[in-house]
Amino acid sequence: MKKSLVTISTSLMLLFGISSGASASSNTYTVKKGDSLSKIAKTYHITVSNLKQWNHLSSDLIKVNQSLKIVNPGTTVKSSPVKTTPVKTTPVKAIKQITVSASAYTLNFARCTGITATGINLKKNPNQKVISVDPKVIKLGSKVYVPGYGYAIAADTGGAIKGNKIDVFIPSQKAAIQWGRKTVKIQILN
User: Fold this and answer.
1) In the chain, what are the domain boundaries?
2) pTM of the predicted protein model
3) How deeply is 120 buried, as exposed, middle or buried, from its count of CB atoms within 10 A (0-12, 13-18, 19+)?
């Protein structure tokens, strides 16, 4: 009986230990040479402000091999792998929601330079999540969430993009055609 209790206790400790380690490692990023907070934030489609808040940073200074917490909006983060009480984080809140007609665009036509209205080079960064907007409706530089596309930046304009219309950038022509045209409710995050 005593041996069974010890075996069960050990198994439970291992189970909880392994599970907290996996949870902690899946929400961390190790800083590499050449990284900056803005580069990391852009990669994970989060804000620099949130990244600093989650990691208790008072400046933009980070060091190689530093471990940073990365939180998906609306989730919680454990303050340390040993503690089991989650720390509540503020989810990214939309400052405005609007319904738009969304279509997709690619760089597969002759007149396209691949440089957005805000200077992002989509030929060099084909996986960048960018949408074209009417700047009178959505300010250029705004971070947005588009259902079915994800977090993106309003970084481009287009001749046919007037009013509540957006174009989502998709690098593959086939995938852009599959996107088609749809009506979606987007969230403007800043």
Assistant:
1) 2-87, 96-188
2) 0.52
3) middle
Report the C-alpha gap between 127 and 165 in whole angstroms.
22
Q: What are the tens digits of pLDDT across the range 105-141? A: 888 766 778 888 888 888 888 889 999 999 999 999 9
Strand partners, 154: 131
Pair of tokens at residue 5: 């209790």
**Was domain 2-87 assigned CATH 3.10.350.10?**
yes
Domain 96-188, CATH number (from 3.40.50.2300, 3.40.50.300, 2.40.40.10, 1.10.10.10)? 2.40.40.10
Contact criterion met (CB below 8 Å) for 28 and 63: no
- Pair type for strands 67-69 and 130-132: unpaired
Q: Which residue has the tokens 């902690």?
A: 24
Query: Within a 13 Å sphere around the CA of 162, how many CA atoms are in the beta-carbon half?
Result: 2
Alpha carbon 185 to chain centroid, angstroms: 18
Q: Which amino acid is at 110?
A: A
Q: How far apart are CA 5 and CA 163, in angstroms?
A: 68
